[in-house]
Structure formats: structure tokens, C-alpha cells
Amino acid sequence: MNLSSPGWTVLRGQAIWQPPKNGKEIAGDLILATNENGNFFIQFSKTPFTIATAEAEDQQWEIRFGNDKYAWRGGGAPPDRFLWFQLPPALLDTNLTGDWKFERDSGKLWRLKNVRTGEKLEGQFFQ
Fold first, then answer.
1. Which CATH class is domain 8-125?
2. Whole-angstrom Cα distance, residue 41 to residue 56?
3. Reduced to 3 DSSP states, what percent helix, strand and coil does the chain have, rounded to the nearest 5?
4. What is the pLDDT along the chain (127 residues), one digit of tens a residue?
5. In this structure, which of 24, 43, 76, 83 has its CB flanked by the most CB atoms within 10 Å?
């Protein structure tokens, strides 16, 4: 994806991710890019490492963890088990699938949580 091409909106911020089943929290930088076609790119990293990358474009999706050690891809709607695919619709106030719940506070902070697994992402965007 060329995120600098016309039509893309790029947000940068910070977040804390807690993996499922009370995994250890990881703080890092978050990039979310979306376009008017519904395509998106998400990257969560802790310098110098990329922790997770998720993208959806033209009914194709892909998610990678670490240095591509674990990766899944497919067609159609992205699977709802991955938190990273839930963030774009949550920020657009779209109904979430599965056991996901999204909350905003009065400022810029937000939280996305799976009420069944305990996985969550808390963060804010600066631009």
C-alpha cells in the first residue's frame, strides 16, 4: 500500500496492548492509515521491532506478528478474532463483531477489549 497516495488518512499515536489470557502488556507506537474505500493498514511497534501489522485491501486481508514469524492472509472479511482488524470499525463507531467492546473517554483516549479473552488495546492518536 502506498499510504502517501491521495485519499489516505494516517493517524499516529501510542498504545498499550495486552495479549489474550492476561498476557504481559506491551507499550508501543501505533500507526493507523485508512482510505475512503475501506482499506486500512495498522502497525504496532516498539522501536526497533514491529510487533503486529494488519492490513485489508480490496477484500484481501493479512496479519503478521514479529518479523513475519507468524502470518495469516485470506479473502473476504477479516477474522474477528484479531484485535487489529477491529480497531478501524471501532473508531468509526461501527458495530463490532464477536466479543469486542469499544469505549472512549472524554478526551482522546480509547479502549478496545475482548470481554471473553481479556485482550485489549488502549491508546490515543496525536494526529
1. mainly beta
2. 7
3. 5, 50, 40
4. 788 888 999 999 999 999 998 789 999 999 999 998 889 999 999 999 999 999 999 999 999 998 778 999 999 999 999 999 999 999 988 888 889 999 998 778 999 999 999 999 999 999 6
5. 83
- CA within 13 Å, CB half, 49: 12
Provide the 3-class DSSP secondary structure of residue 83. helix
Inter-residue long-range contacts of 109-115, CB under 8 Å, 24+ positions, other chains counted = 112/83, 112/86, 112/87, 114/20, 114/83
Q: Grid coordinates standing for 79?
A: 477474522
pTM: 0.91
